[in-house]
Design goal:
This protein has 2 helices and 3 strands; from the N terminus they run E-E-E-H-H. By secondary structure, the chain is α+β, with helices and mostly antiparallel strands. The chain has helices spanning 55-59, 63-79; strands at residues 9-14, 21-32, 37-48. Strand 2 and strand 3 (37-48) form a beta hairpin.
């Protein structure tokens, strides 16, 4: 049957404003030449998305982030407070 009233689509929904989590719903169809038939795929999922400013950010914290973390630990220990 070639009846497809909806067509191919991809819907993404940002779960919370400012969040990196998204909900996804999709449906795609294509023709497989080797199998000589239409293939339809559909599904839903949850994805996490994060942007990086440099290739180095992908694999670890930057020197600036490490410095800030060290300063925070020192200031916490100097003030005698705990989180």
């Amino acid at each position: 049957s070639n009846f497809n009233p909806v067509g191919d689509f991809r819907l993404q929904y940002l779960i919370k404003e400012g969040s990196n989590f998204r909900g996804n719903i999709f449906r795609t169809s294509s023709y497989d030449v080797l199998a000589d038939q239409n293939i339809t795929r559909g599904g839903l999922g949850l994805s996490y998305r994060k942007s990086f400013d440099s290739f180095r950010d992908l694999f670890g914290r930057t020197k600036e982030e490490k410095r800030r973390e060290a300063e925070r630990i020192l200031s916490d220990s100097a003030s005698g407070g705990t989180n």
